[in-house]
Structure formats: C-alpha cells, structure tokens
Amino acid sequence: MPKIFIDDQEIMAAEGATVLEAAKEAGIYIPYLCYHPDVSTFGGCRICMVDINGKQVTACRVPVSEGMVVLTDTPAVALTRRVTVEAILANHNPDCQACVRDSDCGLQRVSAFVGITEENLASLRRGMSEVPTDKSNPFFNIDHTRCILCGICVRTCQEINGVAAIDFSHRGSHTKVSTLAGEPIAESKCESCGECVDRCPTGALAVKAHEHPAREVKTVCSYCGVGCGIYLGVRGDRVVSVCGDKENPINHGQLCVKGRFGYHFINHSHRLTTPLIKRDGKFEEASWDEALDTVATKFNEIIAESGPNAIGGISSARCTIEDNYAFTRLLRSLGTNNLDHCARL
C-alpha cells in the first residue's frame, strides 16, 4: 500500500487506486462530475483537477505512487475549477426548482464548493441547448438543457448493460448524447432499464411523474425468481419509486425495466384483493376456501368428461421457484403436462 500525502495528511492508499479514490476513502472531498465508481474513468469534466508536484492533473485518472504529494485546493486549482464550472453553467438550464434532482444534484454540490456567486453568473453569456426534450420513453425523459456531457450514461449503457444504445454525437458546442441517427430513445435499442437514469448526476435523465419518497423499505423484487434486492420508496400508503440494493449479492443494485418501473400495479385500483367467482355472468367476491373448492370441483368435472389433457395451468414469474415447482407437481398429479409460464410470452 503506497503512502501518499494529500493536503499534508499522510494516507495509506490501496494499490492501483487513483488519487480521487484514495481521497474519497480518506474522507477528503475532491469535486467531480464525470466520475462514477461503477464505470470506467473518463476525465472529461476537468473538475477534479489537483496539484501534483506543481502540475495540474485530473485526480480520477492519475494512479497513486509512493511518496506522492497532492494539493487539492491551491489558488490555481480553485481558479481552474471555477472557470470550468462557469463554462458548464453558461449553457445549463437555470430553473433548478422545477428539476427532479433539485437538492440532490451533482452540479449544485460542485457549484457550491467552488464558490459560484451571483456575480459569476451575471458575467456569463447564458444560453441553453435547443435540442428538444425527448419524451418518447414511457418511463423517463431526456432533457438536453440539463445535460453536462459527463458521459456517465454512455459508459453505463456500454459497460454495465452492454447495449450501447446511446453515445456522443456531433462535435464542439453541438455535442450531445444521442441514439443512432438521432432517433427518439423509444425507437432505439434502449431496454429502458433505467441504469443511466439512476447514475445521472443532474436532471438530464429524469423519471416521469417523479415523487420524493418519505421513507424506503428494503425488500425483494417480485417480478421473477432471480430475487433482486430493492428499496421501495414509500409516501403515505403509496409506493412512488424503486431503486436497487447495491449491497445485494444477486443484483448489486442493478435492475431491469420491470423491477425499476413496474411498481404501479401495487396501488392500482383494478388490483384484485380477494378471489372472484363468476355467477350468472358476473364476478362476485368469495373466500379462498370457496374459490379453491370451486376450482377442484371444476377440475374433477372436466377430467371425468374429457380426460386430464383437457385441463392445463399457467404459472407466474412472480412466484418463488418452490411455488412453481409445487404447481407443476399439482398439475402432473392430475395427469396432465399442459403447463405454461407467463415469462415465455
């Protein structure tokens, strides 16, 4: 473990770690925007500049070495950061109150740290991207006026999901995150998993109809038998959000489109809460004992009249493996192999 010095503090850094990672582990804050621990380093935002031996370098890209001396807040470094943040803010949507990431925004944190003032903002020639917001996806929007071109979404889609539905397009001041040929995101090969939305440091990728939860409940996703760990965001008696449990050994925080965005059935007004039996052409509420007796009676009648191959069963991906196995044994004990599963559809 190499010994380095950050702002006169002696630190034992992990072998192969970058200066930024070593500082974070030691509790020393170095501002950044394009860095994320889940994806490769990018070094594009230039916010994490530090002084090493009198030279300014990006802390997210430089590996630690024995005896390295790092200064994180010299006047020259502070000036570089402030000018860089000003350049980002010059083309950024100033309406933070209407942004879903307000008070939880990476750009806001960095702006406060580098000392952006009203005088700084007043001196800027403000402007915003004229690329219209992409609202084609049913779950999230892409607002280019809030995009800082950090590339976290691009690397997430390429490295974590292996889909590569988005990338940088155009050059210079016209650079933007785009799908192939600039198609709406819903018409691209995007799988709507929301991993990019989860990692976006600003409101450029924002969930539609977002509500901040009052509390979070740790649980397991019920959509399939994988058992991904999730946190349900609860507000009153409603579930308003879902995020992955990064400490869960099954999914490490990653979720599919169903696990992240398919929670609305929980509070849906049409959700069944009791068994229904059709009588005289209309469904009526019944007890579980009555419903199960009805099913058993109908099974016996159909088997007696047409044989066991006249019945079948459809199982659910939301059941556990044990429940699905018991269901298959039930149908086969009745003499039929007519089994299907909703996940096949």
CATH class identity of the largest domain: Alpha Beta
Tally of separate helices: 9
CATH topology of the largest domain, anyone? Ubiquitin-like (UB roll)
CA radius of gyration is 27 Å
* Major β-sheet profile: 5 strands, mixed
Order of helices and strands: EEHEEEHHHEHEEHEEEEHEEHEHE
Going by CATH, the architecture of the largest domain would be Roll
Helix content: 25-40%
- Beta-strand content estimate: 15-25%
Average pLDDT figure = 94
How many domains, as an integer? 4
Straight-line distance between termini: 53 Å
- How would you describe the shape? elongated
Question: Which structural class best describes the helix and strand composition?
Answer: alpha+beta
Strand tally: 16
Unreliable stretches: none
Please state how the strands of the largest beta sheet are arranged side by side. Answer: 2-1-5-3-4
The oligomeric status of these chains comes to single chain
Characterization of the model:
With 345 residues, the chain is α+β, with helices and mostly antiparallel strands. It folds into four domains: 3-122, Ubiquitin-like (UB roll), CATH 3.10.20.740; 140-207, Alpha-Beta Plaits (2-Layer Sandwich); 215-267, N-terminal domain of TfIIb, CATH 2.20.25; 276-344, Rossmann fold. Helix content is 25%, strand content 19%. The chain contains nine helices and 16 strands. The strands form six sheets. Strands 2-1-5-3-4 form a five-stranded mixed β-sheet, sandwiched between helices. It has a three-stranded antiparallel β-sheet with strand order 10-11-12. The radius of gyration is 27 Å and the shape is elongated.
